[in-house]
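pls ignore typos typing on phone
zinc ion + seq
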Amino acid sequence: MPKHFNTIKRLLSDDEKRERVLYYNELNDDLPMDVDEFIKNTVYDETVIMKCLKCGFQEEVDFDIISEFWSEFDSDYPVSYCGHCSKPKLVPLDIYNHIKHIK
Ligand SMILES: [Zn+2]
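k done
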C-alpha cells in the first residue's frame, strides 16, 4: 500500500475467482491457467477512491489502472484526468481531504 493514501482491498469470492480465471483462459487459450489451483489462491481487488479538486466528482478506480501511469517512486500520489470536468485534478480521496483540510 502506498504511504500517502489508502487503498480499498476486497477479497474475491470463489465464484468471482472462477469467473476471472475463465475469462483469462478465454483470452489466453494457448497458456490457460488451472482453474482449481487459481481458486485456492487468495486474490484481492484493490481500488482507490479518487476525487476531483476542481468539481468534486468522485470515482473508484482499480489500483492496477493507477499503477500503469503512476509509481510511488515518482511522486507521492497519482493525479489523473477527471471524468466529469476533464481537468487533470483527480487525486486520491485522502490527498483531496488533506489539500482541502477536511479531517
Ligand atoms: Zn472534475
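The longest helix spans residues 14-27. Helices lie at 14-27, 35-40, 63-69, 93-99. more later
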